[in-house]
Amino acid sequence: MDDTTPSNPDLDNGSRRTRRPRRRKALIALFVIGCLVAVGGLLTDRYLGSLQEAYEKRSVVSLDRGASDGERPAEAAGDGQNILLLGSDQRATAEAAAQEVSGQRSDTMMLVHLPADGSEAYVTSFPRDLYVEIPGHGQDRINAALSYGGLPLAVNTVEDYTDTPIDHVALIDFEGITGLVDTLGGVDVHVPESFERDGMQFTEGTQHLDGEEALVFARERKQLDTGDFARNQNQQQLLKAIAGELLSGDTLSSPGKMRDTIAALSPYLTTDEGLDSRTIVQLGVENRNLRSSTLHFLEAPHGDPYTTAGGASVVASDEEGMEELRTALEEDTMDEYAAEHAD
């Protein structure tokens, strides 16, 4: 006797009818997803391509980096990055860039430390008249390094002084601030101290600045109570306001605004070769969770102003304070350092 259960044609046909629509729906869904991925990839490529085209307007220099003793500082304990930001009042021409930006002095110098997890950023300002050892040139103001040897010597000087390896460097001419701020629609800046300059009034408190006002705000020091120290604070406040606008949802969600912002800044920007568009995108992805509230602004430890035997007005270094900062950078514990020293 055959125990095989007879097949049920109606049941078989129903199962097939059920499976076929499901398969068709699955195939259609996969096709739609594939199309979306393809279109998304195409749009992403075009978007990144437009950003790259805008960014490549910058000037580029090669860094031959080595500390004064021929050895660069040891790598930090963590996997974070250090970027040196310099600001100059003299526009870097193509000829000057080809000569590694010689002849300029960096009126603004900030060391940006980005931890590996991208959760925070630590911006440390150095007084432009800080009296330090410049490799091959003896003691001088720290801002003279750019004049003596361009970006490579500026990097070497800061690496030596902080005992910290610097991964990238960027020099911006102050004139670029005007276009950058105007592209962002202006920025709301905290003005620490009231002053007037060039017919513009800056009043203590929060003030909306356009590009021209932001440029004057970043440059002024003579009318401020503590001169260059107060200007450093103003520049930090401006940088914080710009970063807050750049990191806002309105800017990040607008490809056109991002492209226009980069295009406005790039002609005034000089970087090392390694800080190319791919690296910028990678840094953006790694630090995508940054917000203005996670930017910590610090001042490098220093002593009081004094006059050298040669009659130069300089700012004394603070070796004890610097050792604390060097340790924090080396051990990647800037969070602990900032908790004690952030403004």
From TrEMBL:
Q: Which residues form the Cell envelope-related transcriptional attenuator domain?
A: 105-246
Task: Tell me its family.
Answer: Belongs to the LytR/CpsA/Psr (LCP) family.
Q: Name one Pfam family in it.
A: LytR_cpsA_psr
The protein's name = LCP family protein required for cell wall assembly
Membrane-crossing ranges are 26-43
- Tell me the keywords, alphabetical order: Membrane, Transmembrane, Transmembrane helix
Q: Which domain of life is it from?
A: Bacteria
